[in-house]
Specification:
Chain lengths: 581, 379
């Protein structure tokens, strides 16, 4: 806390949050989600508030605009907004706490002085209004512009956020925009009244890395042009290193460390900051454990192979003198998984990586091509033409871990029942033996035996993912398909779960197909990597080779977009963009 | 500070111990109207179950001396001539007088004659639940032959209070029986349609839409008019419930279908299939339990429409018919101008209908909101 207050603060702060306290009323009394938080925002500087889920960073940012959801309430502190009338004409300071959250004063500040952008660009834009009308509405309310002026200004704003062809774009509806374009439109809307402070609550979390990099770049250039103060909320240390001038680390509602970005990254003081940084930098190289394991036991023969796998979705069926309209989700993919190997499938959303995995597992049917599986006895079978009853045996050997730790466990069954389900359906052991096996599995994934009697909602996301893993390894499988298995978890949990998977690999002789949008995780976990883009495999090779020396232009652009958790690298980085040839 | 730690949800684990039903109950309890509805509904079903215990007289017993006898108020404090008093229930006797000029009949209070009432007094013997022989009723006249009319009497001098109590049984149970039948149909058809999709779904969805598009009252009327008039009252009652549920199942089937379609995509259902569970097990062990709460809620909301349907059919004279007593049958008595002018108490069963329908709706709303204890948790 005794960090140097940076010397670069030439201007006085524009927004000061002092000893802010926001509490939520629970059945057991008031719970402080934000506890004694003090931060300052300076014009032209970005303060990144970083923390894991539940650290109170979002509640804090919402408290500033007084839009905390009930039963939350600001219970103490001050929020001082210093407005400068320019040219030394005067200076005023208002305390936003104490104003009526629905009152005129606060409403005037929102949008005019302080604007906010949210994580989910789809739900923050109204789907039934044109983009231009939505931006124009803010202008007409706050600036009193006429309709014509508002539209003209909207076009200008859209041009400012680099939306191509803004004259046309104002007439579009949000659904016609991609996620990144929507976030640009949101930023345009936020900037419409020239706010002095911009609060961005995880604005890039829902976006792909390449788009994230573009949005970050845009925010940086806009800040420079408008001398705005930005409060940037994120959980990603890489993003912090990219964009922050100052950093505040939050945990359990408190700011545990704050300071200048370079000094925080170079010499973190608090243990929690250290652990966050460690978790972030760990994923920038291969896991030592994995390398050691490969030394001890070399990879075996191929056990699973996808040959010219193709998946088409019929959008409109063929009719009279009309060909069927189809969407090619996976285009002639070839993949070979060897015994004991980890293959990573990397790609952005919509690249077809999940579809490919589901086709290999035959959750989805396959349009053409083959999925060759070699079982323990050495018999090779093509899974592609099989029907559900025939798949029962292969499914026992090939298991899945889902992304969403909440949706993948049946909320109406106890953890014991969930884990025992595959054992029961395959008739493995008597009920007593199954119970013993459940206890053994829970122990293997690092959960107490008492967990078996409880329901999934009693567990946190990380613990639930452990339960999913226990269910996956229950029938002694050989292959596990992990579909973004760690994406929903906090950074510190991610490496824990991946280490658990590696440990199980060693103990049980598993092979993994690891699907992720995060290049860092793949680098840590996988021996080989497959890069997918628009349903096609662009590049394939040893993970380190691909990561250090990418051949395909798409891979190069993907890798250049990945934020690196080191602020000193900012200047030396060059971004390449992939344009389809 | 230490206090705030103990209530920090990030650290505490106690609330996580609550089962789904407990969470539902916690949420339901906060819904005041629903709690109120629950009390009224439980009370009505208690009456339906033990209607004989609540009715002081035989509902079909006529009394020529008491045609259109008005309701009597129960008094509790019994003052004697000498200003001493006792706590006793009684009603004042009312005498039939005829105006000598207009010949209009009116009942006049007879302040000299008190009819004393007894709680849990001895009355005509009856069988509770058709099994247990009993002779005590909730309120009984202290002397055996006396009569009293809390809700008045109808055109044949039958006690409306007893009739309303007996009507409760039929009306409230026809909802239950009808909804059970529709539930079976709805679960089966909606479930199959949602789970298998494709052609099965297309056919059943179109069938549902076809049935929903038909105007219900004429269909009911037509079907019940087709029932032979000579049918045994009990059999007729059963046939009417079948007619009502033949249309009532469609709404439930839609709800179930929608839920199945949504659940079908859930990871835990896919994972159950990958665990090698057969289709039957996936449907009944994995998907059904998630639906139970929603089904309970939609069933509760379906009962009132069944009650209303029965009431309107009987009111139109094509539903149940005397000697069966239901609220609709009772309201049929109040169809004419005579009733409005002279015997407004014949509308009391209508108040029961409104009360039952309203409280069931409140209850259903509360259950529906409570059905998803996790709904408000998301952030």
């Amino acid at each position: 806390m005794s960090q140097m207050s940076s010397t670069q603060h030439t201007q006085p702060p524009i927004l000061e949050v002092k000893n802010l306290e926001t509490s939520f009323k629970t059945r057991h009394g008031w719970f402080k989600a934000v506890d004694d938080v003090s931060i300052s925002l300076y014009p032209g500087r970005t303060l990144c508030v970083v923390g894991e889920s539940g650290s109170g960073k979002s509640v804090m940012s919402r408290s500033i605009l007084q839009i905390v959801d009930a039963p939350g309430k600001i219970t103490g502190g001050e929020i001082l907004l210093h407005t400068d009338f320019g040219d030394g004409a005067g200076h005023s300071t208002v305390n936003m706490i104490g104003m009526d959250p629905r009152g005129k004063q606060v409403r005037a500040i929102r949008g005019d002085d302080i604007a906010m952008i949210f994580q989910e660009p789809m739900s923050s834009l109204s789907p039934v209004h044109r983009i231009g009308d939505q931006i124009g509405e803010t202008l007409r309310i706050h600036m009193g512009m006429s309709k014509k002026e508002a539209i003209a200004r909207s076009v200008e704003l859209l041009r400012m956020v680099e939306i191509p062809n803004p004259e046309e774009a104002v007439k579009r509806y949000p659904y016609e925009f991609s996620g990144g374009m929507r976030q640009r439109a949101m930023i345009a809307m936020a900037l419409s009244c020239n706010p002095k402070v911009l609060i961005a609550d995880e604005p890039t979390t829902a976006l792909d890395v390449t788009i994230q990099a573009e949005i970050l770049e845009l925010m940086r250039s806009l800040q420079k042009a408008h001398n705005m103060a930005i409060l940037f909320i994120t959980h990603d240390m890489g993003v912090v290193a990219e964009i922050a001038d100052d950093v505040a680390v939050m945990r359990h509602g408190k700011v545990v460390e704050k300071g200048d970005v370079y000094s925080v990254f170079a010499s973190p003081q608090h243990d929690y900051t250290k652990s966050l940084l460690h978790a972030a930098t760990q994923c920038e190289g291969p896991s030592d454990r994995r390398l050691a394991m490969r030394e001890r036991r070399p990879l075996g023969d191929p056990i699973l192979e996808a040959v010219a796998l193709r998946k088409e979705y019929v959008i409109t069926p063929a009719g009279f003198r009309r060909e069927a309209k189809t969407l090619l989700a996976v285009k002639d993919a070839n993949l070979q998984l060897r015994d004991g190997e980890n293959i990573g499938i990397v790609g952005e959303s919509g690249s077809g990586k999940t579809t490919l995995a589901r086709c290999i597992q035959r959750i989805h049917s396959v349009s053409s091509g083959a999925v060759l599986y070699t079982d323990r006895q050495g018999n090779t079978r093509d899974l592609a033409p099989l029907t559900k009853p025939d798949l029962k045996e292969p499914w026992r050997d090939m298991r899945i871990i889902f992304q969403d730790p909440f949706g993948s466990l049946n909320p109406r069954m106890t953890v014991g029942q969930i884990i025992a389900e595959p054992l029961m359906n395959h008739g493995l052991g008597t009920p007593v033996e199954q119970r013993a096996r459940v206890a053994e599995l829970l122990d293997l994934v690092g959960l107490p035996g008492s967990a078996a009697e409880r329901y999934p909602h009693a567990f946190s996301g990380g613990q639930r993912q452990r339960i999913s893993i226990a269910r996956a390894i229950a029938p002694n499988p050989r292959i596990i398909i992990a579909d973004e298995a760690t994406s929903a978890l906090d950074v510190s949990l991610r490496t824990q779960i991946m280490d658990l998977l590696l440990e199980l690999q060693e103990k049980l002789g598993l092979s993994y197909l690891f699907i992720s949008h995060d290049v860092g995780l793949v680098r840590y976990f996988c021996d080989r990597v497959v890069v997918m883009y628009k349903g096609q495999i662009m590049e394939e090779g040893e993970t380190e080779d691909v990561c250090t020396n990418p051949q395909h232009p798409y891979t190069q652009s993907l890798l250049s977009a990945v934020p690196i958790a080191d602020p000193t690298m900012r200047a030396s980085k060059t971004r390449t963009r992939y344009v389809e040839g | 500070m230490t206090q705030s730690n103990s209530i920090d949800p990030r650290l505490s684990t106690d609330i996580a111990e609550a089962t789904q039903w407990k969470l539902m109950w916690l949420k339901f309890r906060k819904h005041r109207l629903a709690m109120f509805g629950l009390c009224i509904v439980s009370f009505l079903y208690l009456i339906a179950l033990c209607a004989e215990f609540f009715s002081p007289f035989d509902p079909s017993e006529t009394s020529t001396a008491d045609l259109f006898h008005p309701p009597q108020r129960i008094h509790f404090v019994d003052r004697a001539e000498d200003a001493s008093w006792a706590l006793r229930m009684y009603v004042y006797d009312q005498k039939l007088t005829r105006d000598p000029i207009t010949l209009a009949t009116t009942y006049v209070k007879n302040p000299d004659k008190k009819i004393y009432l007894k709680l849990f007094g001895k009355n005509e013997p009856y069988n509770l639940f058709g099994l247990i022989p009993m002779s005590r009723t909730l309120i009984a006249p202290a002397t055996a032959d006396e009569k009293f009319y809390l809700f008045g009497a109808d055109r044949l001098g039958r006690d409306m209070f007893s009739r309303a109590m007996m009507g409760t049984r039929i009306s409230m149970s026809i909802g239950l029986v009808g909804v059970t039948l529709s539930l079976c149909l709805g679960l089966l058809i909606g479930g199959l349609s949602g789970y298998f999709g494709g052609l099965v779904d297309a056919v059943s969805s179109r069938a549902i839409e076809l049935i929903l598009a038909m105007p219900t009252i004429p269909v009911w009327l037509g079907l019940s008019a087709a029932l032979p008039a000579t049918l045994d009252p009990l059999l007729r009652y059963f046939m009417i419930t079948i007619i009502l549920s033949l249309i009532g199942w469609t709404e439930l089937a839609r709800v179930v279908r929608g839920r199945f379609l949504a659940l079908r995509q859930e990871d835990f259902v896919i994972s159950a299939e990958l665990d090698g569970a057969p289709t039957r097990r996936v449907i009944f062990r994995h998907m059904m339990p998630s639906l139970v709460s929603h089904i309970i809620a939609s069933v509760t909301l379906a009962i009132p429409s069944m009650i209303l349907a029965e009431t309107s059919l009987s009111f139109l004279g094509l539903g149940l018919s005397p000697p069966t007593v239901s609220w609709g049958v009772l309201l049929k008595e109040a169809q004419n101008i005579h009733a409005i002018a002279q015997a407004p108490w014949l509308f009391i069963p209508g108040a029961f209908v409104a009360l039952a329908v309203l409280s069931l709706n409140f209850l259903g709303d509360g259950l529906r909101d409570a059905a998803d204890p996790y709904a408000s948790e998301g952030s």
